[in-house]
Amino acid sequence: MDNHTPVFCTIxxxxxxxxxxxxxDPALSGPARRTLQxxxxxxxxxxxxxxAGAAVRTAAATAEGPRRTLHDAxxxxxxPGVVVRREGEDPxxxxxxxxxxxxxxxxxxxxxxxxxxxxxxxxxxxxxxxxHYDEKxxxxxxxxxxxxxxxxxxxxxxxxxxxVDVIAHELAHGLTQYTANLSYFxxxxxxxxxxxxxxxxxxxxxxxxxxxDEADWLIGAGLLAPRVTGKALRSLKAPGTAYDDDVxxxxxxxxxxxxxVRTGRDNGGVHINSGIPNHAFYLLATRxxxxxxxxxxxxxxxxxxxxxxxxxxxxxxxxxxxxxxAADRYGEGEExxxxxxxxxxxxxxxxx
Length: 352
What we know:
- By secondary structure, the chain is an alpha+beta fold.
- Helices cover about 45% and strands about 10% of the residues.
- The strands form three sheets. A six-stranded mixed β-sheet has the order 1-5-6-4-2-3, covered by helices on one side. A two-stranded antiparallel sheet has the order 7-8. A two-stranded antiparallel sheet has the order 9-10.
- A hairpin with a 4-residue loop joins strand 5 (about 140) and strand 6 (about 145-150).
- Helix 5 (about 185-210) packs parallel to helix 7 (about 275-290) and helix 9 packs antiparallel against helix 10.
- It is globular, with a radius of gyration of 19 Å.
């Protein structure tokens, strides 16, 4: 895969699953423990594949439109599973298959229509996904080659295909893999997660025809079961407010550098500190107004694909590149000023 290093990225952070494992209710702790074990196995498998060399997947540069293949794991763990729907085929009886198919298409269309990119690799890479992974599996992930969705435990998490932003988030990890290839630890890892949240939110907003002011800026809305006191996994608008639940605890995401979390867990807090660049993007998009995938999204996309973003980039270096990208594309006007103000509000220094 050239110099692109595939990583194993999940939508639900391990700190949430850790809380569930400690629950006294076996209906919660059992599925969470099984999910963590499955994730650990996938993560180990991904490391071994990376060392041995991943299989090269290519696509004809002339391919037009998405090339989706949906599989069903039938609650097992062997991937990719049984093919249940291919590109251009009619919807099937399984709603999870149809939602995943539509979400892959919506993400492909955003990349192509808004940014002129043909699939996540820019060359029409086929998009593969598997639904019904494992039993009561409480996560969704990108494993470097395809997307995988669990059914949830029905107690805390519902089917992971219910939120189009979750689908887009995971596929966006593939976009990052094929572009900036941000490492998955500390601040570059948090940027990796943030880019996926941004793309996920943009796909949802575009699907719903929403402006930046109309959007709720949530990641995973509809994913949490009714018993959970919360509305989503994360909020770009107000990091730290997505949930506050007796079992899950309180959303730990900071909105600014003043509350940056230093931890060795979760790969150095990649799902936690991503709240800071997430909030910067929200501030930029709402300050500019209109459709967030246009000017604000274009600036972020230019940085991700521009070739200057280092694999170990921290927040400050990413921020400086967004300032430069805004000036390069739009001049030193409204967009440039809005980027500077957004990063200033979250406490990230954009001075060289």
